[in-house]
Design goal:
single chain; about 200 residues; alpha/beta; Rossmann fold; two-stranded antiparallel ribbon; 7 helices; 8 strands; about 35% helix
Length: about 200
């Protein structure tokens, strides 16, 4: 288990939130996006993290998926139903949820695959900012968050996973990542442990 060093986060950290987009986090009905009640606490924890990090001068990164309307950039392994019009560049579904709207000073990193490091400028931004500690949350725990945690570890970053600022499609998937996968590669904490 990697231990949290709060001072390291304050001096050397960034917050990265994964896939906090309407098409991912919310449910769409008749063109309106609504937050499912079971995800309200998780989104509120993400909002608290954003507020705390901005208040402490810590850079905030929103990582999001952009897709072409024709689906030609969907991974070959997801052919078929995954080619439907989701996360299309410029669409409402592609936008970061209103509860977490990026501020002018925040970074928005576009990815085309699951992990935030693959074929994106994220590593370059972090190195230019001279940051080596990543605080991470987002959706889904066992997909984008886990892939990014593994890649961050491979890139020699210190990683802090905020477990209650992550969510998955099932409690079982979330718990497995939080209890089995993350502790070998990161500190695992709650929002309250970081923001006080």
């Amino acid at each position: 288990m990697v231990e949290l060093n709060r001072e390291q986060v304050l001096g050397d950290g960034v917050l990265i939130l994964i896939d906090m987009q309407n098409d991912v986090v919310k449910r769409e009905t008749d063109g309106r996006y609504e937050l499912p009640s079971e995800r309200a606490a998780f989104v509120e924890n993400c909002r608290s993290l954003v507020e705390w990090t901005r208040g402490n001068g810590i850079p905030v990164f929103f990582v999001k998926v952009d897709r072409r309307a024709d689906g030609s950039d969907v991974p070959a392994a997801q052919l078929g139903s995954a080619r439907r019009a989701r996360l299309v560049e410029g669409s409402v579904g592609n936008q970061i949820i209103d509860e977490l709207s990026p501020a002018e000073q925040d970074y928005v990193v576009v990815k085309r695959r699951i992990g935030a490091f693959h074929a994106t400028p994220l590593d370059l931004y972090l190195r230019c900012l001279n940051k080596s500690t990543i605080v991470i949350g987002g959706f889904a725990t066992n997909w984008g968050v886990e892939s990014t945690v593994r890649a961050a570890w491979d890139h020699d970053y210190q990683v802090v996973v905020v477990s209650d600022a992550c969510a998955a499609f099932s409690d079982e998937e979330h718990e497995f990542a939080v209890k089995r996968t993350f502790p070998a590669r990161s500190a695992v904490i709650t929002t309250a442990q970081l923001v006080g």
